[in-house]
Design brief:
binds glycine, 443 residues, binds adenosine monophosphate
Length: 443
Amino acid sequence: MVKVMIIDGGARGHALALAYLNNADVDSVIVSPGNGGIDKNCLDRDGKFSSSLCIDSSVSLKDPSSIIKSARIHKPDLIDVAQDDALASGVVDLLKKEGFRVFGPSRDAARIEWDKEWSREFMARHKIACPEFKAFRIKEEKVKANDYAEDLLQRKGIIFFKAAGLYAGKGVLPASNKEEIASALAELEKMGPASEVFLIEEGLPGEEFSYYAIVDGKNFACFKSSQDNKRVFAGDKGSNTGGMGANAPALVTKDLEKQIEEEIIKPAVNGLASEGMPYIGILYLGGIVCSGSIKVIEFNSRWGDPECHVILPGIKNSYFELVNKAIDGKLNEVKIEEDTLSRVCVVGASAGYPREYKKGKRIKINYADIPTGVYLLSAGIQAVKENLYTNGGRVFSVVADGKNAIDARIRALQGIACCSIEDNGLHYRPDIAWRDVQRLQRE
Ligand code: AMP
Ligand code: GLY
């Protein structure tokens, strides 16, 4: 029997745990550090306790030694490093040196996410379509950056400032006038090492999507596309968040899959291999469809959260087997089979997120009224005895399936209506998947 360890702290770790446990050979999963909701297993697919899932909260995602220590104690047969800080720390390479079987890109390959300057230059070297951009040093080149920003803004109408390093998903600032350029530069100055180097790039008009490939160094296989809803309020209003919900498949990429795979995924996988850093792991394309052509907003080196919540349950292959094929360089031997259902995930967040919010609020879930097949994944949750309390911005995700996005969304909203956080503390978007819902309503 097999023990899997997943390195992640959010709902993505929970979603992956359920995907691994779908294989009869996997008899236990440890999520490190995980979170209190996973530990209690109170949010499992059927709301039932499963003794095969536990957490190791001693792990810190930015501290490779804590991950190695946890691995030495639990001796898993497979370690899936699923979170960006952990990948950037180089823990994949360190765990491999210790003799563990690991899924996730090396530190060098994960650079495609943790160094946005390198990543854009890589795309340029391999002729992967991306926005016009330039990189600057915050200390020495503010004046030069300001001049470039003003010129680019005049030509493109909207521009984006981006910290080159990881900044908890908050390092991207749009600007559409001179005041916003000045305030973006001032914000970047406060971001510390993440923004020592930053990019200024043209804003691309179009519709965004997320696309994922599992990669074995040279072969790859892709999953259903999805669409994240990143703004905090309905109607895509308010600040960017880690993601307030998602749906899959995303209709915007219908009939564009071949093009995405040929023009973007393939040159990226081949490019990484030819530069001596073969990519083994999940490659995440944040793409945009601009008048029929596809361009890259970003590459990430892991599953998106919440996108994986709506993709993983639709995969008919054993996820454990897929990962093993990828580690062994044998993805050419598999064909990904997915169901034809649509899925919608609605994130339940702490009121005030992504700005100020209070932790420690009691969460209540009325399991009896959650529709059959709808389930919760746990993120910012702390368990004290049998009770659950908020412990983060994104608290949980409600996942539902249906024959299309309309149907799945109705069920997800019925599910989240069974949840509450004390003091009116639950915030969620009722319009997740709105683009596809509108498309379907027009049909
Ligand atoms: P990121 O943190 O890189 O995912 O960026 C956050 C969001 O900013 C993206 O989801 C896009 O909505 C937007 N964005 C970033 N770069 C661009 C760009 N060059 N053109 C248009 N939108 C962008
Ligand atoms: N949902 C966006 C991300 O995981 O980066």
